[in-house]
Amino acid sequence: MKRAFTYKFAFLLVIIMIFCFSSNVLAKVHKYLSYNEIKEIFLKEVKKRLYYPNAKIVVLRFKLEPDNLLIPKKAVYRIKFFSQPSVGSNCAILTFYENHKKIAILRVWGYVEAEVPVVVAKRNIRCRAIITKEDVTLKREPLSRLPQDVIFSLKDAIGKEARVSLKMGSVLRLSYVQAPVIIKRNQEVTIIARGKYVIVRAKGKALENGRLGEIIRVMNVDSKKQIWARVISPEEVEVMF
Predict the structure, then answer these.
(1) Topology alike, domains 35-114 and 181-240
(2) Of 14-23, 30-39, 156-165, 223-232, which gets the smallest average pLDDT?
(3) Fewer beta carbons within 10 angstroms: which end of the chain, N or C?
(4) What is the distance between the alpha carbons of residues 33 and 77, in angstroms, rounded to a whole number?
């Protein structure tokens, strides 16, 4: 009976010790900055210095040295980046202060990625097809893996002509699209000749296909003279004199 009481007392004592130890650990956890909280500080400061509209900025990898310092959550900090933060590798020095005294210095490194919405093909698009809103959508992609001429806005793709065949899921690039032909060869057009004080209109005939803003050969129907003119609408070309 006495031995059973001793075992029960010892078991109760162990439970109390575990509880006290756990309470102390939890108190320390809640009192000091964790690894993830320091990572969030780094991310917040990077976001302040990066500007990518509609982008989701994330830190893919993160390290800090030393990694065993106990930094109170109430401490204030200052951060100094080695260079202007950008997508990719970034290093900084985090200095913490408490009661105006320096209490800790951390060297932090993080690999930053910006996930940005880009235009992708919802289905296969054949070469020379006019791209419609049913053909494309927006999808977030890592900026570091994208080409420089990627298309970010749907309005920059819809209504354009595909210069190459595009597979479903392809990221659209400016080099993959072009303005559609709005004046076709042998089409009747209006030639608008603009001078400093006068505007003259004449009937003309397109001698080649033309896109908005392109310079094409046009023949004046009356004089049969060939001229170069800029396409300004589906029915008009312009020449300056």
Answers:
(1) no
(2) 14-23
(3) N
(4) 12
Q: Do the beta carbons of residue 154 and residue 138 sit within 8 Å?
A: yes
In CATH, what class is 35-114?
Answer: alpha beta
How would you classify the pairing of strands 101-121 and 136-142? antiparallel
Joined tokens for residue 153: 């806005």
Q: Rg of the Cα trace of the chain?
A: 34
Nearest by Cα to 75 from 37, 132, 122, 19 = 37
Question: In whole angstroms, what is the distance from residue 27 CA to residue 23 CA?
Answer: 6
- According to the model, what pLDDT value does residue 240 have? 85
Selecting from 3.90.1210.10, 3.40.50.620, 3.90.1010.10, 3.10.180.10, what CATH number does the domain 115-178 have? Answer: 3.90.1210.10
Considering the segment(s) 181-240 as one domain, its CATH architecture is: Roll (2.30)
Domain boundaries, the chain: 35-114, 115-178, 181-240
Q: Give the DSSP per-residue string, 8-45.
A: HHHHHHHHHHHHHHHHHHHHHHHHB--HHHHHHHHHHH
Residue 146 is given by DSSP the state: S
Question: 14-35 pLDDT, tens per residue?
Answer: 455 544 443 333 334 469 999 9
Please report the pLDDT score of residue 23 as a whole number. Answer: 36
Q: What is the phi-psi region of residue 54: left when phi exceeds 0, alpha when psi lies from -120 to 50, beta otherwise?
A: left
Q: Cα–Cα–Cα angle for 231, 215, 211, nearest 5°?
A: 50
On whether the pTM is more than 0.70, the answer is no
Question: Does 6 have pLDDT greater than 80?
Answer: no
